[in-house]
User: Fold these one by one.
Assistant:
Number 1:
Amino acid sequence: MATETTAGTASTSTCVVDGSAVGMPQLCFDWWPNQIFWLIVTLVVIFFFLSRIALPRIAAVLAERQGTITNDLAAAEDLKAKAVEAEEAYNKALADARAQAQDIVNQTKAEIKAELDDATAKADAEIAAKAAEGEEKIAEIRANAMESVKDVAKDTAKELVSVMGGKADARSITAAINARMKG
Amino acid sequence: MATEAQGEEGGLVFHPMDQFIVKPLFGDGPVGLFTITNVTLWMALTVVAVVLLMVLGTSKRSTIPGRMQSVGELAYGFIYKMVEDVAGKDAVGFFPYIMTLFMFIVFANFLGLIPMSFTTTSHFAVTVLLALLVFVTVTVVGFVKNGAGFLGLFWVSSAPLALRPILAVIEIISYFVRPVSHSIRLAGNLMAGHAVIKVFAGFAAIAVVSPVSVLAITAMYGLEVLVSFIQAYVFTILTCVYLKDALHPSH
Amino acid sequence: MEGELAHIGAGLAAIGSGAAAIGVGNVAGNFLSGALRNPSAAAGQTATLFIGIAFAEALGIFSFLVALLLMFAV
């Protein structure tokens, strides 16, 4: 089919007749040297650009980034350690303060208790004194009252005896009354 | 020509292969060795694209990369990791070479997707040279690094002794088929995709079919974008695999 | 007459492309079922997947090339 018999001399190659391809253009060996030449040029140029400029540069950038990341991580670690330290210090201070506050509270409580005890004791003593005084007075009053009762009883008894016709001596009446009062 | 079904089918004309014609950029003379052709133009554009991305894109050297620099670094990391993982740590010296191959192929493929453009990597002349470069490099490196031990690649020591000569023949054949498949895979994929798009475009001349045709072209175009990248990736990773064979020939 | 035979041959060779498609589908499907069973190991095997696909596809591309050669170059 794809014959070279067609007179393609007017065109660029025997592979092209009237502007369209005869057979596969890929197999037109007239064009191979040209393509191979330009391909080699292209590859050499790309290789030059990549190996001399682009790849070392990208490698450097990547290495730098790795370094930066490592540094930043280390710094972050540092900061974290510092933060932990600060928190510990804070906690310690807090605990100290709490303990101190507890101490003060205990102390104050003890003081107040001592004062209270003191006051209570004083008040108790006072109360006891007053009670004793009261009792004394009561006893006195009772004694007085007893005396009065005795006197009244003596008088009454003397009167009664004299009315009944007897003669009562004061001593026996007193003794009788005392015995009665005791009984 | 087989594809020219002129006349009979309502004037449908297919020229799916015309997009691959090499022609001089200036004038209308024959294509000589140094003639500036559309090949030259599109390869030059490939170089420009590579330089734009990899050199100008990274010129700021910023620690926090911009868009272009991120893409450049992504490509760098992608190929670097591939070389390291597939070919081994001692293959890192070949990294610029492999990077060159990858950048050229990927940009040539993508530039070829621009409508009316010329796809340099769809030509066997280009891919065969690329594959032969890899083949020669791998063979030379294999013999330089391992001496005659490189021939151990063909002598499968884990197989039974009786089978080994047969396996050796198969291994040698497969070794020499490598550049063929390596080159034809790349060119064939791109050529097929572009030719199919062109055939669909030819159908658009029939008014009834043209919406379907446009849809089909869009779908094929999407597939071709994928294929462009995957073929560059596959070419590169196979280069790495061959390089691993050269550096560590023992099976 | 020879031209027509070449066209028939090209059509027959194009069957190979379909066969390659089956092969590629096999590779990708098996990879996927393996990856779903053990997703953690899948990420490391994508390179192998692409190599496998490339090898399977290369043979399809060969048949496609034969078709093209029959169409255009014979």
Number 2:
Amino acid sequence: MQKMLFSGLMVFIALTSGFAQGKFFSREGHIFFDATSNGSPEVIEANNRAVSSVIDLNTGQMEFAALIKSFRFERALMEEHFNENYLESTKFPKAVFKGKITDLKAINLGKDGSYPVKVTGTLTMHGETKPLTVDASLTVKGGKITLGKSSFSLTLADYKIKIPSLVSDKVASVAKVTIDVPYQPLADSK
Amino acid sequence: MKQVFIWLVLGHLTISFAQAQDLLDLLPDEHPRELVTASFKTNRVINLHSLENTAFGVLDFKISHRFGFLSGGAYELFGLDQSTIRFGFDYGLTDRITVGFGRSSFEKTFDGFVKYKFLRQSTGEGAMPITAALLATTALQSTKFADPDRENYFSSRLYYTFQVILGRKFSETFSFQLSPSLVHRNLVATLEEKNDVFALGAGGRIRLGKRVTFNAEYIYVLPDQLASGYQNSLSVGLDIETGGHVFQVHLTNSTSMIEKGFIAETTGDPFNGDFRLGFNISRVFTIVKPKEF
């Protein structure tokens, strides 16, 4: 009886512990955005190379967080204005995406390759939370997720980011965003 | 034994449930050190150097004007009939070191400076509460010697200023700094004037909107160093930022736009309404692009 219980417990633990696996994370995700208006003399683009992300393949959940202050611009003054006037990073220090991979079954960890997926969720930025659905791809190598990629567009007005008319010939109203994140397994399940 | 199992199962369940939280919480918290930026719109409060530096690889071209005293009335078009100009170039050698030079029409003066920021206000791990900088300036007055027949020394044309800038951005709206200063003049006109003049400057800003700030500065010269008639410098103004430019419009009782002048040679009497209209225009150019671009 006790043996049965014990082995049952082992199976139970093994099964539920399975939920702790299948998680992947990154702290070195890269977000690039381009908000240059057509014909603008100045290029308005920035890189953030310290994006955090966690994927849980068991539930399909996916989260991203980027510090606004970690975006680097070509011009120091642009960076200052981005933080001070547009994104107000002291008030709203982070942009956070929380979403779900809707076609999780498409991913086969047993087979290396790049899997196109759809991710749907919400993006919170500049104090505004808006739904966002994007096409992405996840790369599987050796039974692990090693890379996540996506590109999409954001309408700045949705996030109450105002472009003064004085610079509307330089700053576009829609920003093109590219994300690439190298993932590694999240070792400790806590 | 059964109890042990139950506890094990319960314990395991709670651990499993604990995972149903925010995924990002699984990553340990990080509070990286972050520099506090944009304490002032530009590297001058009005006349005084602010605690800001020109960023690495950036050239800041400044054109500044001071008009005559408003108290000159309509006859002088409230001072607009007279104007003195300084144009200057400031360049960020590194994010901490700025160098600059300029030329003022007032007394045909050339000036140069080096500014070194040795403490930078920051938040997060190892936060630093203040920003501190050292400023050293030289001025060369190039007007013709008043009496060319007597023995004149080149060194008589030179002035030096040393300043410590201690400041803090207290909030998004309010920044404040103190600027203890020493002006050295190789030659002074009379015995009652000191070659070394000690002064304490104070400057601050209040942010009125995203792109507009109200600035004020006052420089207190310690007593018994200047000839009678010289005043402490008092200035108030607005900073208006438009993309790559910062316009500074102000009222000041000083004429000169360099340290030795506005600290030790201010003549306008605030109680007599001796204020001048003035403006500084700053335009920045990125000379060295960061690696990624």
